Amino acid sequence: MNPGAGQDNTDETPMPVARPAGDSPAGVAAVPAVEGPEVPGGSSDGFAPLSIPLFRDRWIASTVSGVGTWMQDTAATWLMTALTGSPLLIALMQTAASAPVLLLGLFAGATADIFERRRLLIFWQTWQMAAVALMAVLALFGVISPVMLLALTFLMNIGSAMNSPAWQAIVPELVPLDQLPNAVSLAAASNNLARAVGPALGGLMVAAFVKASTGAGWVFALNAGSFAAVIWVLYVWKRKPLFKSALPAERIMGSVGTGLRYLRYAPTLQAVYLRSFLFTFSVAAVWSLLSVVARREFEHGRISGALGYGILNGSMGLGAVIAAVMLARVRARFSADRILAAASLQYIATMLVLAYVHYAWLDILFLIAGGFAWTSTMSTLNVSVQLSSPGWVQARALGMYQMVFQGGLALGSIAWGAVAEHTSVTVALASSACMMALCLPLTLRLHVLRGTLPDLSPYQWKRPAPHLEIEPAPQDGPVRILIDYVVPVEHYNEFVKKVHKVRDVRLRAGAIRWGVFRDGNDPERLEETFVMESWLDYLRSRERMTTDDFTLLQAVRDMHKGDDLPRVTHQVYAKEITDEAHHA
To answer: Which residues cross the membrane (predicted)?
Structure first.
């Protein structure tokens, strides 16, 4: 394959930039970045995003639907408690809600990055509405069983799992970047406002009927209707995406593979995922066993167990709403690491109180504090994912985050439910608190939103893609790109240090191999080389370049000796040319 023509190789080697006097040879122009506290706070007015009509409509519709969802969660869990006395089966309700995300999170993110998100969201909202409507019919006719309840909960949450990455990924399309932390906090407030109101309403409706299945059935019917509000907002929305590729869409499995490759070389995201898993695995004991705690605390009082469960669940929702209101000011004063550490300590205290202190009013107080800690943690981690992933892969990053998050809840629910089944609820809650305490030293070393954040806005190439003498077809490959640098011997170590930072840039964008080599006969000549699976993948990698990635490439380019650009060669794997291909 012939190399690119002469010096017209700016697709891989940035043009020289003017440097202020006194800069070192490797100096580069400053790149805009998010400065300030550990979690970029944006406006101190946490409600500012609600002044934007698109975001406000989405928020209201989401809150209405969320109330219905949390009413259903309470009613379904209490219905399972009425249908069976097994703590394991009751805990499996949380698993049925979480497992679909564990299985489908990355796949859901891939579809959200490929297909038009508005239509995708309408489809999966309709799916959930249909599943809940079926559950309502079966419950109202009194023919629902524990297995059917688990199966339909699982089916409904397949829709929720496929919907979630696209739903979160549209937030940056609705608000300016500096309002993103507040928008995420308000989204959490919406969910947790629903959590504060929904469980109590769900518990009241179930308690209002003699048969739990009848009360739960009407709750399910109301929830089916609540999805209509979200579907209507999505139907009338005129979407303008932030990132739109000019190239053919990726295939779903290829998109999944590209997403995994990106995450493999994104240590910042890996730290977020590990913290999320360790936190949710421990906290799952509260979510999965709270109905059993409610039955224990309210069984002999004037408040029914169903209503008591709604009150306890609503207490966490109330704490979460308080957190969402205060988080803008909290983020302005404390780092993300300190917020996460304080939240973990609070949850340790909450789980120990639920385990050993049998006073309902004290449980409520600590659950309010636990709800505050929950939203503080989830909002901080969610913002971190959104600010640490570029637009082209953001839904996949959020899908993986949801996959890890719900995976922790699902596996934790199984583990703590099994502990409770074979020992007691007290032992299960105390064990989860001990596990979180043991993991705390590790999580303190996994920093989140620390220091200056990279500029992940798409870099706008100044020139079109290279046109070669033998133009490859989109699927031709593998493709090897070689970039020749001439570096003074005295700058060799500095160059090698800088060029190795480019490795992750190439691999995140889709390269399957990368290397840098020094010429044995010419110590000043070094060659960077990377391989893409196809010419189309190479073109996609150019679209995926962020401003921060380009800054790293510029730093390497500035160490090249001379005024000419480094020479770039594009090579395509040599295959035998058939007569049909030759004539074509």
So the answer is: 88-110, 131-155, 215-237, 272-294, 306-327, 397-419, 425-444
